[in-house]
User: Fold these one by one.
Assistant:
Number 1:
Amino acid sequence: MAEIETPVESYLAAGRERRIATFGDFLRIPSVSADPAFAADVHRAAEWLGERLRTAGLDHVDVSETGGHPMVYADWLGAAGAPTVVVYGHYDVQPPDPLAEWTSPPFEPAVVGHRILARGASDDKSNISIFIEAVQALLATRGRLPVNLRFVFEGEEEAGSEHLEEWLEANRERLGGDIAIISDVGFFEGNLPALTIALRGIMSAEITVTGPFQDVHSGVYGGAIANPVNALATIIAALKGPDGRIRIPGFYDDVVPLSDDDRAAYAALPFDDDAYREFLGVPELVGEAGHTTLERKSGRPTLDINGIWGGYQGEGGKTIIPGRAGAKLTCRLVPDQDPGRIFEGLKAFIEEIAPPGVRVRVEPQGGGHPIRSSIDHWAVDAAAKALEDTFGRPPLFIREGGSIPFVATFEQALGLPVVLMGFMPPDGNFHAPNEWMDLDNFEAGIRAVIRVFDGFAASAP
Amino acid sequence: MAEIETPVESYLAAGRERRIATFGDFLRIPSVSADPAFAADVHRAAEWLGERLRTAGLDHVDVSETGGHPMVYADWLGAAGAPTVVVYGHYDVQPPDPLAEWTSPPFEPAVVGHRILARGASDDKSNISIFIEAVQALLATRGRLPVNLRFVFEGEEEAGSEHLEEWLEANRERLGGDIAIISDVGFFEGNLPALTIALRGIMSAEITVTGPFQDVHSGVYGGAIANPVNALATIIAALKGPDGRIRIPGFYDDVVPLSDDDRAAYAALPFDDDAYREFLGVPELVGEAGHTTLERKSGRPTLDINGIWGGYQGEGGKTIIPGRAGAKLTCRLVPDQDPGRIFEGLKAFIEEIAPPGVRVRVEPQGGGHPIRSSIDHWAVDAAAKALEDTFGRPPLFIREGGSIPFVATFEQALGLPVVLMGFMPPDGNFHAPNEWMDLDNFEAGIRAVIRVFDGFAASAP
C-alpha cells in the first residue's frame, strides 16, 4: 500500500502489534445482541468502546442507555470551517452458532497468517477499529483532525436496530453534519476495493405451526391428524416456484426493474461464476430465472429460511408427530419494496395456503428499507480517490446484498448524504463460522480513512 | 375389578405399596436405547431386570450381551404337560425430550391420583412389570405356575431392534413353545380392554440436504444459491398431496385394501371423533381422503416427519443461509407393504424431485413388517375370557397403529401363534412428555395375566 506523510506513517509503523492487541481485546467481548443471555456482554462492549474512544483522543464520549443495548457516541469538533462527518458502525455481533464448526473459539481471536479469526472480526468491529485507529494516529501526530467528526456506534444492528430511531430522534443535535459514512460494508469479490452504492432492505418474520397439544406417538396417532412439520414444509415450499420467483401475491409490485445501464454495470464487474461456486462448495448456482448471479445476489429480492425446527433432533429415532414446528424467514428487498407491505403480503398468503388441521402464526421480526445512493457527490469522489491512492486501483461501485436499515434513516430522517465505505474482505464469513478480517485490509484501511478525511477537507464546497 | 381366588388375592391385596415402589425403581433407570449417551443406563436396567426376575422366582435368568443392548431371558418350565408360553416385552424407553414439557422429571416417577408419571411408565415397563408381579404372586402362593413360561425382554425396541434377530437365531432352543404373548400394546380409547389383532409396519429414514460449505450470510449470498432448508421443505411437501395421499410412486401397490368386513368392524368400535379431536387439541382431524379416523390411524399407511432441523434456532434472528438441513421421517405400513421396497421408492422419488443447487442424501434407519393376526385360536379365546372376567366386559378386537417389528419375527421365523395383549392406557403419552400408567390397569392387569395363564392351562388342546 502507498504510504502517507512521514509523521503519521512512522506512528502507524511502530504500532501494528499494539493495534492487533487492542482489536483482540474488542473481539474477546461476546457482544451478541440477538440473544438476551449476552446482554451484560453487549453492555461491557459499549463501556470498553467508550473507554477506547477516550484513549484515542475524542472529546465528548457518551455511552447512553436505550432500553435495549447502549448507543456509543463520541465527537471531535475542533476543525472550524471544515466539513462535519458522521461515521456509523456497530459493535454488536451475530450469534456464534454453530460452535462446532469453528476452528478456534469465536471469542478467542486467533491470528493465522494475515487473518484474524473471531466473531465480529470483520462485521463490524473491524471498520469501527480502523476509524478509531485513524483518529488516534491523526490526533497523536498532528494534534487535530482535518474534519469535524461524530462517531455513532450501535449495539443492536444484528438484532433489528429496535431502539435506534428513538435514540436518533432524541439526539438530533448530535447528528448535524455534511456527510455520513456508513461503515458496515467491505470489498468486492477478489478483495477489490469498493464503494457501495446500494443496499437491499430486509423483512424478517417467524412462522409457528401448532398441531397436537404436545409431541404424540406417530404410530398411535399417525394418519388421524396433520403433522406440523409436514404442514410447515408445505407452506415454505409454496413460497417460491421452481423458477426461483417468490409466489407471494404482489411481492414484485414495487420492484424497480434493473435498467439496461444497471445490467451493463453488473456485467462490467470482474466476477467468475465458477470460482464463486467452487468457493461456496455448491453443485450449482441457482436463483431467479433471467438474472445473472451478481444481479440476483444484490439487485433482486430474495426469500430465505434462516432456521427451522420441530420434533426430535437427537441421535437415533423418535417416532413422534411433533406438537409444533417453526421457522425464521427473511426477505431481502430492493427499491421500492416496503418491508411492512411485504410482511402483510407474506402473512396473508400463508394464512390462505395453510393446510387444514394445524394452527399457523406469522409474526413480524423487524425490517428495513432498501437504499440506493447517488454517486454524483464530492464526498464520493473524495472517498474514491482516497481508496485509489491507498490501494493502487480505483474502487468498484457495487451494490451490496446485505441490509443496513439505519442507512435509510440517515438519508431520509436526517437528510445526510451517505457514503458506504468499509474494509471487510468479501469472503470474511460474516454471520458464519470462522469469521475473519484481513489484517492487511485493516492496516491499509487506517491509511485510507486518513486520506478520506483529508480529501473531504480539501474538496468540500 | 373381579377378585381371583383367596390366597392369591390376599397376597396381592397386601403388596400394592411394595409393587408401586418396585415399579418406581424400574422407572428411575433411564434406559433410553436410541441415544448412545444412555448406554450404561440401558445396561443397568437389564441387570436390574435380571435381579428382579430372580426375586420373583423364575428359574433360569440370563442377561446376555448382543453387541448392542442386552437381552434379558428367564424361564420357569415346571408345568409338565401344560402349554409353554413365550412372553415378549421391552425394557428400553424412548428419549425423554422435550424435557421442558414434563410436569415432573421423566426419570423421577411421580404418583398423581391413580396415575404414575415417568418415561416408560406405560411403554413398556408397565406390561413387563405386570407379568413379573403375576408370576411372583402365583409362585409365592401356589408354589408353581399353571403353564411353562419363557420371558424375552428386549433392550432395543425403541431403537430398531438391531440385534434381535441375531439373538433369536442363536437362542432358538429357548423359544420353543405353544403360544407367544407380545405385551407391548394396551387398551382402546376410553380405556376399554382390548386385544390387538393387527400392527402397522414401519420404515424409518433420514434426509440430509447440503448447500454451501457452511452457514453463510443471507444478504451477501441470498439469491445466488439454493437454500438447503427451502430445498428440504420442497422435498417434504412433494411427498404428500392435499388429499393426504402419499405421492411416492408405487407406495400403495402392495396395500391390501380394507374389506367391507374390516370397515364394518372399524365402524362398530365405540369412537367419538369430536372427543378425540378435543383431547389432541387440534382444530380438525385430517388425513387420507375416503377413510374414517380409526381406519386412517391403524388400517392405512402414513408418512410423518418426526423431526426437522437447519440453521439458527436460538433467540432473535440470524440472517443466514444454512449450510445444511435434515429431517427424520417414518412411514407406518400396512399389509403387504415391505419396508425395504418402501425405502427404495422413497429414495428414488426424492432423488428425482430434489431441487437443483443442493446435495441430497437419503439413508435408511431401519424398518419392520406390518402384521395381521388371526382371532380364531384357543389362546385368543382364553385371553379374551380372562380380560372379560377381570374387567367385566369382553375385550374389543382392535388394530394398532404402532409397530412392533419383533412380532413378524415371532410369527414367521419361530412359527408361534401370537396374542397381542397389554394394559397401557390408550392416552398414556407414549413417546411423548408426561408419559403415564394407570395404576388401576396395573393392578387389574396382574389379575388378568393370572387368569390368562390359568385359561391357557385349561383350554390348550
Note: Chain A touches chain B through 105 residues (CB under 8 Å).
Number 2:
Amino acid sequence: MGQSPDSGQKQTPIDALNNALDAGTLAHVRRMLNSLPAAEVADLLESSPPDKRKVLWQLIELENEGEILHEVNADISGEILRSMDTEELLAVTEGLETDDLVDIVQQLPEQLSNELLQSMDAQDRQRVELVLPFAEDTAGGLMNTDTITVRPSHTMELVLRYLRRHEEIPRFTDTLIVVNRKDEFLGLLPLRRVLVSDPGMTVRELMQTGIEAIPADMPDSTVASLFERHDWVSAPVVETNSNKLLGRITIDDVVDVIIEDADHSLMSMAGLGDDAETFSRVIHAAPRRALWLGANLITAFIAAAAINLYQETIQQIVALAILMPIVASMGGVAGSQTLTIMIRGMALDQINRSNTRWLLNRELIVAALNGMLWALVVAAVATLWFGDQRIGIVIALAMFINLVTAALAGVLLPLLLKALKIDPALAGSVILTTVTDVVGFVSFLGLATAFYM
Amino acid sequence: MGQSPDSGQKQTPIDALNNALDAGTLAHVRRMLNSLPAAEVADLLESSPPDKRKVLWQLIELENEGEILHEVNADISGEILRSMDTEELLAVTEGLETDDLVDIVQQLPEQLSNELLQSMDAQDRQRVELVLPFAEDTAGGLMNTDTITVRPSHTMELVLRYLRRHEEIPRFTDTLIVVNRKDEFLGLLPLRRVLVSDPGMTVRELMQTGIEAIPADMPDSTVASLFERHDWVSAPVVETNSNKLLGRITIDDVVDVIIEDADHSLMSMAGLGDDAETFSRVIHAAPRRALWLGANLITAFIAAAAINLYQETIQQIVALAILMPIVASMGGVAGSQTLTIMIRGMALDQINRSNTRWLLNRELIVAALNGMLWALVVAAVATLWFGDQRIGIVIALAMFINLVTAALAGVLLPLLLKALKIDPALAGSVILTTVTDVVGFVSFLGLATAFYM
C-alpha cells in the first residue's frame, strides 16, 4: 500500500495530469493524455487556458485527435481545425462516425472543406454528402448512418446469423431497424427481443410498429424531448416527406443537445453567447460583453432621464435620492424571478395558450402579497430613518406598484418577444430592467412630487 | 384527407388533449391520457395548474399511475402521494422498478412508508430495503436491481441459452455483468459482443475488464459526468468498500440528473428553489420568493446607507442623483456576467487551482477594456447633458473602478462561497449586487465630493 505520488488513489486522472503538466514532465503527460477516454481529454482541453491547450493538443496522438475534436465545444474545435492543413484534416477524420465527420466539415472554411471532401475515399464522401445538407441543429445533422436493417420476412435464426457476420455491431445498437425493399421504415426490433425469442419466429411477428421515425428536419431540441419522453437509446431518422430510412440518432449525441439547451437560458440571461466557453480569450470575450454592457447603458440612461424629470423634487427632499434605488432594485429582482420562471417554462415547452392566464394570475397574486409585505417593512424603516411618515407612505405605494408591474412585465414580455421571434432569454432581462427601473423611479418620485409639492 | 378536429395531423398529443379538456369531453380525454407514454402524461401534468392537474390525475388508470408518478417532478408527485391511502399506494407501486419504488417510499411520511413496506410482498420489500439506505442523490439511490449476471467460465452458447430463459430482458441492458461466486464485480460483457462471437468462446475471453464499477455512495452528479464521458448506456453499482454487485444505473435516470443539475444554476441565481415547479401554487411560491426579496432589501438598504453618506453633495449637485444609478447598474451587469461564467464553469467542474489565476486575469483585462470604452462614452454623454466636464470625469472614473471591482468580486466571491460550503449560485448574486451597488455609489459620490466640495 505504498503511496507513490504517481499512483495517488484519490486523484482524478485530470488532477494527476494537471500536476504532471505543472511539473513539466511532458513525456509523462503525453502517455497519460493518450490513455484517457476522448471525453475526458476534451474536458481537460475545455478547462485549460488557450496557451496550455495548445501545448496539450500537440501531445495528443493523431489517431485520437478526431474523437477528441468531436467532444470539445465548437469554439475550441473550430480554433484547432482552422490551424490544420488538408493532410492533417484527412488523418484526423479517418474512421470517425458520420455525424462527427460532418460536424468537422461544417466548421471548416468552404475551400478547406471542399478539399477535404475531395480527398476522402468515395464511401466516406458519400456518407458525408448525405448528411451535410442538414443543418447542425436538426435531426439530420445529429444522425449517423451506421444502421443495421432487417426485413419483416426474416426469421430470428437468419437475423442472428446476419448479426454474427458483422465484425462489430455499432455502439448504442439496442434495436434493429425494419425496412421494406424500398428502404422505407416499418418498425423496430429490439435486440433484447431477438435474444429471448424462438429462432423460427419472423421479424414481422416480433417487431414494434406504430412508432414514428424522426423526420430529418426536426429541430434537435424536439428530438431531445422525444428521447427523454420515450427513454430511447437510439431512434431511426427518415426523409422528411417520404418514409425512407436515412440513419439513426443515438443517446450520446442527444445528451449533448440536452446540456447545450440547458446552458442556453443561463448564459443568454447574462448576455453571454451560447457557445461562450469558460476560457475564451480576451479578444473573444471582450466584444461580446461590451455589446451587452452597451445595451444596458442605454437602459440606464433611460432610467436617468426618468429621474431627471423630478430634479426639483429631489433637490428639496434629498431622502428621495437615497431611497429611490431601493424601489428600482426590488422591482428588478421580483421581475427577474418571474422572467426566469417563464423562460424555464418556455424552454421545457410547458407554457401554452391554455395556462398563460393562470400563470399571470399567480404571478400577480404573489407580487401583490410580497409587495404588501415588503412595502410595510420598507415604510416602517423609511419612516423611522427620516422621521417623516409621508416618505414611508410614498415608498410603500411605489414599491407595491413596481412589484406588480414587474410580475405583469415578467409574464407578458417573454411571450411578446417569442411572438416576435426574439429570444426571450437574451433580450428579456435588459428590457425588463428598463421597465422596472423606469416604473420604480417614476412612481416613487412622481408620488413624492404629488405628496410634497 | 379530411380535416376533422380530432385527427389534426399537426397537433401534438398534448395540444389535442388540451383542446379536448377545454371542450369538456372527459371520456375522450381519459382515452387519450391512458394511451400516451408516461413521460408525456407527466409533461402534461407539469404544464397544468394544480386544479386542472387534479382533474387529469383522476382520469388516469391505476395501472399507469406508478410510472407517471416517477416521471413528474418531486413537488408534484409528493403532493399526489400524500393524498393516497396504503391500499392505493400498494396498487400504484405494483410492478415498478426498484428505483422508482424507492423514490416513492422516500417521499412518503414515515408512518405511511412503513405501512406500505409491510404490505409489499417479501421480494419487493427486500429490493426496496436494499436500496432505501442510500440517499436519493447518490449512485445507490439511482440504481435498479434488475441486473443480468454471468460467470467468467460460461461459454457464449450457455449465455445465449441463459438469456433465452428470460421472459424479458430489462430495458437498457447493453451489457451483461460478470461476477464471481461471491457476487463481486469482475467486468462487463457487451451484448453486441455476445451476438458476433463464436459460441464456444468463454465470458472470460470476451469480457471487458479494467472498468471500475460505481461505488454506491458516489454523488449523482459525478455519476452523470462519468456516463457523459464514457458514453455509457448502463453501469454496474457496487458496495462502497467491497466490490460486491448491488445493481445498475441506466441512462434514462442519468438524463434526469443532468437536466436537474443544469436547471439548478439558472433557478438558484434568481433565488428560486431547485424544485420550484412552474405551476406551483401561490402558497408555495410566495414564501420562497419573499425570502429572496427580503435578502435583496437588506442589500438595497446597505446601498441606501452608502448614498446617505453623501447627502450634502447630492443636495448641492442634483445631477449626481440622476447619474448615480448608471454606475451601480453597469457594475451589477458586468459582475453578473463574470459570476455566471464562474458558476457555469464550477458546475462543469472546469475550474481548479491551476486555472483560477488565468481566469481572474482575463476577467480583469476584459473589465478594464470595457470599463475604459464605456467610461468614455458615459463621460461624453454626461458632460454634454449637464454642460460640466467635471461630472464626466467623475462618472468615468467611478464606472471604471466599479467594473474592475465587479470582475474581481465576480471571480473571487463564488470561490470563497464554495470554500465556505455555501452554494455560489444561490448566494452569489445577492452579495455581488451589494458589492457593486456600494462600490458604485461610494466611488461616484465620493469622487464627486472630492472634486466639488
Note: Residues 149-251 of chain A form a domain with the CBS-domain fold (CATH 3.10.580.10).
